[in-house]
Amino acid sequence: MISWQEFLWQQEEPDLMRDRLCIGSSSPTHLDCRIEGADFRRQPATAKDEIVVCAYNVERGLRLDDQLRAFGGDDGMPPPDVLLINEADRGCTRSGDRNVAREYARALGMCYVYGVEFIELPRWWGPGGSVRGRCEHGNAIVSRFPLGNVRLIRHRRTRSWQSTVQRILHVGEPRLGGRVALAADVRIGERMLRVYSVHFESGDRGRGSSSGDAYREAQAREVIEDASDLQRGVVIGGDMNVSRYPRLREDDASGEPTTSALAGAGYEDAHEALAGSERVTTSSGAAMDLIFGRGVRFAEAGVGPSGVWGGVSDHLPAWARVSL
After folding, report:
1. What are 1-56's pLDDT values in tens digits?
2. pLDDT by residue (tens digit) across 240-290?
3. I need a surface site. Which of 176, 208, 228, 293 has the fewest CB within 10 A?
4. Do the Cβ atoms of 92 and 17 come closer than 8 Å?
5. Which CATH homologous superfamily contains domain 22-323?
6. 2-25 as b/e, with b when 16 or more CB fall inside 10 Å?
7. Which DSSP string do the residues of 110-170 spell out, in sequence order?
8. What gap in Å lies between CA 302 and CA 268, rounded to an integer?
9. Domain boundaries, the chain
10. DSSP H or E segment with residue 212
11. Nearest partner of 303 among 267, 268, 277, judged by Cα
12. Burial classification of residue 88, based on how many CB atoms lie within 10 Å of its CB (0-12 exposed, 13-18 middle, 19 or more buried)
C-alpha cells in the first residue's frame, strides 16, 4: 500500500507583500521556505489511462496574460493535465506583483503547489527588468488531479548567485538561494504518478567539478536518487539547461552528462523519436526543456509551435502523452 497525504491546500488569498514563503537562510544558497498551494478545481477529474504532461519555463510570468490566453485557445498542443513550471515569480514588480503559479491554477481550474528557488534582490536592471523589492521565484506543479506527498528538494550541489558587486550596485541578477526540484505524487483514480519539476543549473562557465555540466549532472543524480525506491511511474520534467543536447544526440548523446545520467538510470526521453530541429525550445536552437520518465510509456510528444508560443516566453513548452 502506497501512503498518500494530500497537500494541505491554502485557499485564502495571500498578501504577497506580507506573506512571504521564506523566513531565512542558513547560507546564501540554502533557504528555509514553506511550500504554497491551493485547489481551484471545479470538479474532480475523471481517472484515465493516459495523461498529458507539459514542461514550461514561463520566463518569470512577464507575459502571463498572453500565456494563459494561449493555453485557452488553439495552442497547437493537447490540453495539459499536469504542468511542470519553471521561473514563476511571486510578488515581483517586474511581473506586476503577481503570484504566477497561483494564477495559472486559477485560470486553468487546477490545483497547484509552488516552491521557492530564489529570493530575488532589488536591482535597477537585469534579466526581466527592474526589481524594486525582495520577491520570490521558483518552480510549480499545476494539476487537474490531486497532489500529495509534496516535497521541495534543495539541491546540495548548486552555484551561488550571491554577487556582492551586483547586490551593492543593484544590477544584473543578485539573488539568494539555489536550484531546487519540486516533487509530488499525482493521484489518478487509484494510481499514483510521481512527478518532479526541475530547473537545473544554467551556464557553461567553470571547469571540472565547478562546471555547469558538473552541477547539472549532480542535480539530476539527486533527483534520480530521490526516486530510486519508488515502485510506481516517475516523470521528471523542466528546464534542464542542457544547451548541447540536441546537437549531440544526432551523433553521440553520451557526451552530455545530465541526460546520460537519466538514461543510465533507466529513464526514457519522451522526445527521443523527434529530429533535433523538431524539439528545440529556445531561440538559441537548444532543447533545454525536457521530459524523462521510467515505469511509464510515452505515446506521443512534441513542442508548442513557435507561431503561438514564440512571443510569450523565451522558452517553448514541451509536452508528452504519458501512458500509465
Report:
1. 679 999 999 989 999 989 999 987 777 888 999 999 999 999 999 999 999 999 99
2. 999 777 554 554 545 789 999 999 999 999 999 999 889 999 988 889 999
3. 208
4. no
5. Endonuclease/exonuclease/phosphatase (3.60.10.10)
6. eeeeebebeeeebebeeebbbeeb
7. -EEEEEEEEEEPPBSBSTTS-B-S-EEEEEEEEESS-EEEEEEEE-SS------HHHHHHT
8. 15
9. 22-323
10. helix 212-227
11. 277
12. buried
One-letter amino acid of 94: R
Closest CA to 56 of 219, 258, 290: 290
SS3 of residue 289 by DSSP? strand
| Residue (of 286, 297, 302, 291) closest to 262 by Cα position | 291
C-alpha cell at 153: 528538494
Cα–Cα distances in angstroms (integers) from residue 274 to residues 65, 85, 245, 252, 271, in the given order = 30, 22, 13, 15, 6
From CA 117, how far away is CA 19, in angstroms rounded? Answer: 16
